Amino acid sequence: MAFHHSRRKLKPREEEEGGELNIVPYLDILMNLIIFMLLSITGLTAFGALNVSAPTYGAAGLGQGDADAPKLMLTVLISHKGLYVRGNSPEAAPAEGGAPTVPLKADGTQDFAALNARMVKLKAAFPQETKVIVAADPDIPYDSLIQTMDALRETAGSASERKLLFPDVTLSAL
Fold first, then answer.
1. Number of H-type helices and E-type strands within the chain
2. 55: CB partners within 8 A, 6+ apart
3. What does pTM read for this prediction?
């Protein structure tokens, strides 16, 4: 009996294909996630938007109210000592000795209720004025800046009792 090798064993074996990974479904999922995240981020930013304007340079616009009415030029500075309120009015005159206009509370936090009460008095004296410039020390927490702008923009109280005070907030650098 003769021993014969099969042709299959004599023929050199080709390496099997490694099988390519199909990444098309993965890319589909990835693209859907990217589109979803972009749309959700742009939708959520509208909820946290505050209307704040940068300072303007050049001549003031014409026809913006009575030119003879005195301008308040209200400025609020947020510092670690308290809140400083300045303006062209006796109600917004600097405190004596460089003390803050609205000092800190006993626990060391800013007194936003007292600031709001002072803004109500200023609004009564200047009913047409809507602008305020807000500046803060560099290491003031962002939350203090937002709460200061809230106290400047409208009166405290329930939603039906609130009235606008100084809604045109301009941020300034020190």
1. 4, 6
2. 133, 170, 172
3. 0.60
| Closest residue by Cα to residue 169 from 52, 50, 54, 48 | 52
**What token pair was written down for 38?**
């972009």
Instruction: Give the model confidence (pLDDT) of 112-152 as tens digits.
Output: 999 999 888 888 888 888 899 999 998 999 999 999 998 99
DSSP 127: T
47, with CB counted inside 10 A (0-12, 13-18, 19+), is exposed
Report the chain's C-alpha Rg in angstroms.
33
Task: Using alpha carbons, select from 67, 77, 74 the residue that is nearest to residue 131.
Answer: 74
At 62-116, the pLDDT tens digits run 555 555 666 778 899 999 999 999 888 776 777 677 788 888 898 989 999 999 9
> Beta 82-86 vs 74-78: how paired, if at all?
antiparallel
The dihedral of CA 62, 63, 68, 70: what is its sign? negative
Residues 148 and 134 sit within 8 Å (Cβ to Cβ): yes
Domains in the chain (CATH in brackets) are: 70-172 (3.30.420)
The Cβ-side half-sphere exposure at 75, using a 13 Å CA radius, reads 15
- CB 89 within 8 Å of CB 72: yes
